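Severity: low
Component: inverse-folding endpoint
Summary: output formatting inconsistent between runs
Steps to reproduce: submit the following C-alpha cells with default settings.
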C-alpha cells in the first residue's frame, strides 16, 4: 500500500512539473516593446531605433579550393591564350612576344584564277593576301648570301648561288633551272639557328604546281644527324623520302611559307626537293628564305 501511494505522489509531481514548464515557455518570449504614451495621449517615439537581428545566412561556407597541379595550371593558361587568340590575334601575339616579320614580296607576274590543273590534293587559293607571319622579335632571313649546293652541279640556266641572293623576281635571269627527275638544293646557314619559317619561290611567272616538294633540316651536310622533315607533299613516295600528307600548291609571288614556329626547329642545314612541275619535267628555284635567330 505504501508503495502504491508513493507511486501516485511521483506521478502527480511529474505532471505538475510538465504543466509548469508549459506555462514558463511562453513567458520567456519577448514581446515587442510598446511605445509609451505621453500625457496628451499620443505615443512617444523612441529616440533610439530598435536594432534588427539579421536573418541567419543560408549560404553554405565555400570550401577552400585545393592547390592545382602545375599541369592543370599550364593547360588553363594555354586554353586562355587560345581563346584570346581566336578573338584578338594581335593581343595574343603581344602576350606571346611575337611580332610580324618583314617578308618582302616580288611583283606578281600573272593575274586571275589559274585554270584547273587536275592535280590531286591541291589546296584552294586563299583569294586574298596571306596574313602576316608572327615570330619572336629580331627574327630575320638568315639564309641571305649563305653557301648553297645542288644535286645538279651544272644548272641548265643560272647559277646555284642565285637561290640565296635576295632577288625574288620571276623575270629572266632571276631563276635557276635544274635538270629533270628528283633534284634538291641545300643551304648551309653556317651556324645553329632556331628556325621559325621557310619561304620558297620555285617559279611564279606562270601558274605552276611543283611535284614531290619536300623540305628537310639537319645538323650536318650529309643529312644523317637530327634530320627532320618539315614539309612533304609527295603523295606516292616517288622521291623515296616517305609518303607526305601536305597539299600541293600553286606557285604565286608570295612563295610557299612553311610554318615551323611551334616545332622548335634548331638546325644548320636546310634542304629542298622537287620533281618536275605541271609545265615540264624540270626543276626551278628563284629564292629560298629561312627566318630565324641564332641559337643562344
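Observed output (run 2 of 3):
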Amino acid at each position: 500500500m505504501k508503495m502504491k501511494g508513493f507511486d501516485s505522489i511521483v506521478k502527480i509531481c511529474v505532471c505538475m512539473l510538465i504543466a509548469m514548464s508549459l506555462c514558463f515557455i511562453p513567458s520567456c518570449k519577448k514581446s515587442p516593446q510598446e511605445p509609451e504614451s505621453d500625457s496628451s495621449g499620443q505615443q512617444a517615439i523612441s529616440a533610439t531605433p530598435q536594432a534588427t537581428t539579421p536573418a541567419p545566412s543560408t549560404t553554405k561556407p565555400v570550401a577552400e579550393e585545393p592547390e592545382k597541379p602545375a599541369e592543370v595550371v599550364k593547360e588553363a593558361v594555354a586554353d586562355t591564350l587560345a581563346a584570346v587568340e581566336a578573338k584578338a590575334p594581335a593581343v595574343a601575339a603581344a602576350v606571346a612576344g611575337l611580332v610580324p616579320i618583314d617578308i618582302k614580296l616580288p611583283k606578281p607576274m600573272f593575274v586571275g584564277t589559274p585554270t584547273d590543273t587536275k592535280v590531286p590534293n591541291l589546296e584552294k587559293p586563299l583569294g586574298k593576301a596571306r596574313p602576316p607571319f608572327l615570330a619572336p622579335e629580331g627574327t630575320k632571313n638568315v639564309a641571305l648570301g649563305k653557301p648553297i649546293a645542288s644535286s645538279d652541279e651544272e644548272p641548265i640556266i643560272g647559277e646555284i648561288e642565285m637561290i640565296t641572293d635576295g632577288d625574288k623576281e620571276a623575270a629572266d635571269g632571276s631563276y635557276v633551272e635544274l635538270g629533270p627527275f628528283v633534284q634538291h638544293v641545300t643551304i648551309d646557314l653556317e651556324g645553329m639557328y632556331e628556325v621559325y619559317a621557310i619561304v620558297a619561290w620555285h617559279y611564279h611567272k606562270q601558274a605552276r604546281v611543283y611535284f614531290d616538294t619536300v623540305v628537310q633540316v639537319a645538323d650536318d651536310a650529309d643529312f644523317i644527324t637530327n634530320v627532320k622533315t618539315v614539309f612533304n607533299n609527295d603523295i606516292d613516295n616517288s622521291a623515296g623520302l616517305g609518303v607526305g600528307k601536305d597539299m600541293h600548291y600553286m606557285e604565286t609571288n608570295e612563295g610557299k611559307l612553311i610554318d615551323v614556329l611551334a616545332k622548335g626547329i634548331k638546325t644548320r642545314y636546310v634542304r629542298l626537293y622537287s620533281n618536275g612541275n605541271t609545265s615540264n619535267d624540270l626543276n626551278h628555284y628563284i629564292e629560298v628564305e629561312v627566318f630565324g635567330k641564332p641559337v643562344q
